[in-house]
Amino acid sequence: MPVAEFGAFVRNSGHLRKWLILGVIIGVIAGLGAVAFYLALKYTTDLLLGHLADYDPPTAMGDGGSAGSGGFTRPWAIPLVTTLGALLSAAIVARFAPEAQGHGTDDAIEAVHTDPRAIRSRVVLVKMVASALTIGSGGSGGREGPTAHISAGFGSLLTRWLNLSDEDGRVAVSLGIGSGIGAIFGAPLGGAVLAASIIYRRDFDYRALVPGFIASGTAYAVCGSILGFDPLFGSLVTDHVFDPLQIPWFLLIGIASAAIGYLYARVFYGTAALSSRIRFRGAAVLRPAVGGLLVGLLALAIPQILSSGYGWVQMAAAEDTLLSIPLWIVLVLPLAKIVATSLSIGTGGSGGIFGPGIVIGCFVGAAIWRLADLAGAPAVPAGPAVFIVVAMMACFGSVAHAPLAVMIMVAEMTASFSVLPGAMIAVGVAYLLISRTNVSIYRAQRADREAAAAERAGLRTHSDSCA
């Protein structure tokens, strides 16, 4: 069936058939895109960090559960590799698709609000290669941003190919964002809820929710059938029973998570603004390279900042391995990871900011548990996993203005649904605190559906007047 005929068939279909077709197509591409980027990142990391720098970072349970090298045998090579990877990534982006720099999710959200046909097809490939080079060489970034950009780009491509209405195109791009992130994290329900919530700060796009179930479930099935269905971090918390005496701890985690999440957004975008002021011929390539060099030098003192850092989350969740990490690193790591991510992605590198937010939140919880355990404080869990999982939810869920979606995603990633009662308190407190500010880690978000509709109406009026 020719594309034009298929497009007419989809447009003229009823709601159920239309979104069953589109949801499955977007889900399949999102799942395959997640697999492609996962493998590209794995091989790039093995080549750059593993072969050139002789360093293997620890990996999460779902990625093999390796303890890593345990130290640097060629410390002089780490800054060289991080600089090289950032330089190559920036050169590719500058040459082929400048919009592929940064974390990418904001570009996809902006397309939802302004023009769902606007994401160029070439961005998909450029984003994949550039992000693999940035993160695979040790740059601090997450793998969810590239996969979200890839699948959102396909949603944009479908909108053009099938000549979908703007309303349907906005939903299609939203489904791409949610299903891509849900697939790469093995969190289909969280991905579906994310598709409906990530584009607004204090609203929810109900139109994307049920189609999101189809797209995200399909993406999870495709990705999992190739890479496996095990949760990313295994089962971190399996037997937790909610204890009312721990409520003060959850309140503290919520307050600390909001403060660190706020700092994350401010430092990240402050670095991006400062970096953008440096303008000269070749600056778009040299800025990320300098950022990569600084990350490599910082990693010599704090190796936990390198790459995604998911393996360090896995290690921090176990009492014996957390206690083996020096206390000063546990306390400093949330700030160090913020700085490293800002230098890697905020200067123009390519990679996600969701993943680093999870690592930052992890060590907020780890720091609180370590200090409470040292002080012999009452009602502290026997191990750090509960505090770590809850802080992961609260830290990024609040600053992303997607508390429910992130809470579900982290629960799926860690198979830790038993922590939800306490997590609801921490996440609720963190979100309420962040919502009193105008700070968000995703600046393309609109306040709500009404504000977005008014903006689109204004753009149409301006366009008509210009015509």
UniProtKB/TrEMBL annotation:
Alphabetical keyword list: Chloride, Chloride channel, Ion channel, Ion transport, Membrane, Transmembrane, Transmembrane helix, Transport
Q: Could you state one GO cellular component term attached to this entry? A: chloride channel complex
Q: What protein am I looking at? A: Uncharacterized protein
Q: Which InterPro entries match?
A: Cl-channel_core, ClC, ClC-type_chloride_channel
GO MF terms, alphabetically ordered: chloride channel activity
Q: How does it sit in the membrane?
A: Multi-pass membrane protein
Pfam families, sorted: Voltage_CLC
Where does the sequence pass through the membrane? none
**Listed SUPFAM superfamilies:** Clc chloride channel
Question: Where is this protein localized, as stated in its record?
Answer: Membrane
The organism is Mycolicibacterium confluentis
Q: Which PANTHER family match?
A: CHLORIDE CHANNEL PROTEIN CLC-E
